[in-house]
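Q: Predict the bound structure with s-citryldethia Coenzyme A.
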Amino acid sequence: MSEQAKLEIGGKVYQLPIVVGTEDEHAVDISKLRQESGYITLDDGYSNTGSCSSAITFIDGEKGILRYRGIPIEELAEKSTFIESAYLLIYGHLPTSLELRRFSDLLTQNEMLHEDMKFHFEGFPPNAHPMAILSSMINAASCFHPRLMEGYQPGNFEVQSARLLSKVRTIAAFAYRKSHGLPIIYPKPIYKYTSNFLHMMFSEPYEDYNLKPEVVRALDLIFLLHADHEQNCSTSTVRMIASSRANLFACAAGGVCALWGPLHGGANQAVIEMLEQIHREGDDGSKFIEAAKDKKSGRKLMGFGHRVYKNYDPRAKIIKQQCDKILESLHINDPLLDIAKKLEEAALHDSYFVERKLYPNVDFYSGIIMRAIGIPIEMFTVIFAIGRMPGWIANYKEIMDEATTRIYRPRQVYVGPTERHYLPIEKRTKNA
Ligand code: SDX
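A: Predicted complex:
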């Protein structure tokens, strides 16, 4: 008999099973609570609620630990590549050379978009935000693959998932080129994933982009570090949509929309806008920090704080080191990096941030690298979405492979008007 939790309500004691994960995380299973007691639980922002059991990514927020399928992010950042780590997340093990070759070939075979999709790009206004284009074009791309609409079939998941992972970068690059009035640059099969993306973004019809190894490596690392992160807002959204058995592309399109918010993936763009504002105002950061501590200012220290990490985000540590390397190798002196470092130093010695355990998260330094590479700020969250695609795909697969997964349908506590009746319009008064 597994360990039980006891809950006493109105003099009656309810026994609730306790679930223990492989990293010794403990949870009270309340699946039968309403049926047995008539009570539900309420948890603002789901801070204390596990929506599922998952074997994909482990985070220990107190210790600043992040592992993809058990492998520490620091080891993957040093030794792996984005596509190899994507395979690890999706299939649960590091690929053999044969498996990696097949996966890479599938990505190459699926890198092009249906030619008719160009007409969809034509329909967007020049200033359309690339995240809006990305979410709509992922769904549009699915229309050209009818088998996708048959829903999850283990037999065709390998091709469907490679199709999504490959095309998301083509859509992103085409969106960038379109919004800047530039001719579309088609992918080249000789290039691997990240190189091909940079080629499609920055080559010209008359001249291929100069793929500097340090730039390719820096962007590949950014993708890898963003590849998955347990049940964050956008991944939970993907799982919510997947629980209704919608198709993979529909789930990814929903994930893009959730990621867009400035409190989530949109933070990397907001951090650079914050640093540029501090730089423009000649502030050494102290004024901004004071404002971020004052709730009435409506300002936050973007790139700081995290729902799970109450310690330094391990990804931020790695990205910060990479910032120094890439700026040095490209001979760039970016004043925003100096401002970011000063902000971090000041915040980590300020009781407001220390007491609330607010540390730099993945978004605090990532924009510095993307700026150095020449990626425009409106594309920062798109880069995050490309990176996060393997995590969304892995969570989609986990739900679909789990035969017992039921549709996600949270309950609520109703606080609206109690029963009242229809009033003919002539009898209504203001705010009736
Ligand atoms: C990502 O979930 C994931 O894993 C996400 C992610 C991933 O890989 O998927 O890691 C990616 O989204 C990283 C987070 C990017 N967002 C930002 O950097 C935006 C700035 N950060 C905050 O908005 C905030 O820290 C959140 C949204 C990240 C977390 O919010 P929580 O968990 O709801 O925390 P909270 O708002 O309850 O904050 C607790 C306290 C509050 O003050 P008090 O009410 O206790 O007085 O800390 C304060 C907050 O006001 N606070 C901040 C702050 N973050 C929290 N104050 C100033 N600046 C901040 N950045």
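A: The CA atoms of residues 51 and 410 lie 10 Å apart.
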